[in-house]
Structures are given as C-alpha cells and as structure tokens.
Amino acid sequence: MENSTTRFEAFSDGVFAIAATLLVLEFHAFPGSDLGRELLRLWPSYLAYVTSFLTIGIIWMNHHHTVSLLGRTDRTMLFINILLLLTIAFLPFPTKLVAQNLNTGHDGEQAAALAYAATFVLMAALHLIWWGYARKGRRLIADGTSDSALRAVDRAYLPGVPMYGAVFLVAFFSPLAAVLVTFAIAAFYLPSAALFDR
Description:
Strand content: under 5%
Number of helices: 9
Oligomer: single chain
Distance between the termini: 32 Å
Structural class: mainly alpha
Mean pLDDT: 89
Radius of gyration: 18 Å
Low-confidence stretches: none
Number of domains: 1
Shape: elongated
Number of strands: 0
Helix content: over 70%
C-alpha cells in the first residue's frame, strides 16, 4: 500500500518538535543557592542542550528536504521512519545523562558520554538506511527529481556514521572531548544542509 507523504511528514515534525522541547527540561538550579554560581555550574547542561538541539534541528531540516524528494511512501518506509523517530525521541535521555555527569570525575561521566555517542551512531545509521531504502532504484523518489539532488543528499549523509563512530571511541578517553566533537559535527552539518539545494 502506497501513500502520499503528507501524514508521514506531519507525524515526523511532531516528534522532532517534542524531542527538541523536552531538552530544555534538563536545566535545574537549586533554590536558596548562589544563583550566579549555580548558573555557571550548569555549563554541561548548556553544552549538551545546544549540541542536541542543533542536531535535532539539522536532522529535521534534512528530513524535511529529503521528504520533499519523495513521491510516495510505503509500509517499509513508514517503519524505518518510526525507528528513526524512536532514536530522536530518546535523545533527551542521554542528553540529561551528559548534563548531570559531565565534568564530575565520576564513573558515570564516561558511561553518559558513551550512551550519548551511541545514540548518535544509531540515529545516523537509521537515517542512512532511511534514505538508502527510498533512494534505491528511485523506489520512492518523485518523478522529475534530478540525479544531482539525490547525489547531494548522498554526500551529506555518508559521513554521519563514521564521524559519530569516532565520537564513540573518543568517549572512552575523554567524555568532554566526545561531547565537544559532537558539537563540532553539528556545526559541520549546519552549513552542509545548504548543499541539498544545489
């Protein structure tokens, strides 16, 4: 059974919006304390929030563009999309772990960074599978979509898994460096989203 992409995109947009909104709930300043010091103490929360929010925003931009290249969906594509959205909806949890444990010197710091990086690896892998399924043999691609537009998406998606895999390895040695590299990847992908329109 094949369908248009309207409900497919609308449901996806809702999940993206909720996941991005939930990220801000991880800020907690203790009452009765020195507020200025407390706000400075929250810097891991700020870093994790900005990194995760930017990443969700970039994935949403890419998802929006690639859906515009689809002429239809099928049940397999809907299922793959659900798996992708599952990882996006899950992201606030490892973000919270990083916010709570980064720079504490406890064992949980490394575990939090590994959980965070693993979530991004899975997310990138599922997005690559998502696109590969739609792209193969132009299975779900709209008629008239140019090969150059498809190649632009290919170029943007391919580095994701290796880059986040490298972050996962870095997390074993330096949790802070792993989160900073994750932020750098978000910064890398932000301008690369413009490649889709070329």
